[in-house]
From TrEMBL:
<feature type="domain" description="Polyphosphate kinase-2-related">
    <location>
        <begin position="39"/>
        <end position="270"/>
    </location>
</feature>
<dbReference type="GO" id="GO:0016301">
    <property type="term" value="F:kinase activity"/>
</dbReference>
<keyword id="KW-0808">Transferase</keyword>
<dbReference type="Pfam" id="PF03976">
    <property type="entry name" value="PPK2"/>
</dbReference>
<comment type="similarity">
    <text>Belongs to the polyphosphate kinase 2 (PPK2) family. Class I subfamily.</text>
</comment>
<dbReference type="InterPro" id="IPR027417">
    <property type="entry name" value="P-loop_NTPase"/>
</dbReference>
<dbReference type="InterPro" id="IPR022300">
    <property type="entry name" value="PPK2-rel_1"/>
</dbReference>
<dbReference type="InterPro" id="IPR022488">
    <property type="entry name" value="PPK2-related"/>
</dbReference>
<protein>
    <submittedName>
        <fullName>Polyphosphate kinase 2 family protein</fullName>
    </submittedName>
</protein>
<dbReference type="InterPro" id="IPR016898">
    <property type="entry name" value="Polyphosphate_phosphotransfera"/>
</dbReference>
<keyword id="KW-0418">Kinase</keyword>
Length: 300
């Protein structure tokens, strides 16, 4: 197995980053890839890099100029929850917000499908994580088009033009966010059907994990080819320089975490966030203020 070095780690995301998806094919990414690394080396590296990721996030918050949005997608069992736990744990919770999009409630359904997404976009200085996202509306909704409530909508969900328009809306929405200083990294955790079966069986057989099992996952497995096609179409239509897709081999969760960690660090480093300078008043009186603080006493 290959040792992990900074140079090798920095090159990892580039193998899976899609900035122009016009010719993308999902089969070009092998779910079983592991980069020639060993699990124990990857886990140790991730632990080391958490401090650097946390420092970058702190500088982003202090600068209060840009925000970062991480979109996580993947089939059930792909490892979205555990990736958030292992990769994002080094960031300050005050500057990090994780949002999970479930089936729309009555209020959300009364608005356009991007309304609730826009409401959850991170503010300046924050890192936002979408655990599932607006892409569910071109993935699950597309696979189960017969169940889509089209009340008031234009177009026919049974025709490709309907989904082409919706993907264009998403691309335009993300372009708009980019012009507002919101930088986007979209991650698809790409695993094989066999690995999903293993993980669902493990979830079912472990009493402490059984609560996560949902029998509907078995039903959705039958639509695997349709989901693969929907993902491929979504990535082709929405991968851009500003909002690229990272299609990560995820048969080995530790490898997916390693790649995403390095991709997120690279994205934040590219923003070169720096804390604002202290005010001239503070700098002009720093000695006096320091002496006053040194001499200060707390009353009994």
């Amino acid at each position: 197995m290959t040792e992990i070095t900074l140079g090798k780690a920095r090159k990892l995301p580039g193998q899976y980053l899609i900035r122009d998806g016009r010719d993308f094919e999902l089969k070009s990414i092998r779910p079983q890839d592991h980069g020639g690394f060993h699990k124990k080396h990857a886990e140790a590296w991730i632990a080391r890099r958490r401090a650097h990721l946390g420092a970058l996030q702190e500088r982003l918050a202090a600068e209060h100029r840009y925000s970062m949005l991480v979109v996580l997608q993947g089939m059930d069992g792909a490892g979205k929850d555990s990736l958030i736990q292992h990769v994002m744990t080094g960031m300050n919770p005050q500057g990090t917000k994780v949002v999970s999009f479930k089936q729309p409630n009555n209020i959300e359904s009364a608005h356009d499908y991007l309304w609730r997404v826009h409401m959850a976009v991170p503010a300046r200085g924050q890192v936002g994580v979408f655990n599932r996202s607006h892409y569910e509306d071109v993935l699950v909704a597309r696979v189960h088009a017969d169940k889509l409530d089209t009340n008031g909508m234009q177009g026919d969900p049974n025709k490709p033009e309907f989904w082409d328009n919706r993907l264009k809306d998403i691309r335009d929405f993300e372009s708009y966010l980019g012009r507002q200083g919101i930088h986007i990294l979209k991650v698809m955790l790409h695993m094989s059907p066999d690995r999903q079966k293993e993980r669902l069986l493990r979830r079912l057989r472990r009493p402490d994990k059984r609560w996560k099992f949902d029998e509907s996952d078995l039903t959705e497995r039958q639509f695997w080819p349709a989901y693969s096609k929907a993902y491929e179409e979504a990535i082709r239509a929405t991968a851009t320089e500003h909002a690229p897709w990272l299609v990560v081999p995820s048969n080995r969760k530790w490898y997916a975490r390693l790649v995403v960690m390095e991709a997120l660090i690279a994205r934040l480093e590219s923003l070169s966030p720096e804390p604002p300078p202290p005010s001239p008043e503070i700098m002009a009186n720093i000695d006096r203020i320091e002496a006053k603080l040194e001499a200060s006493q707390i009353p009994d």
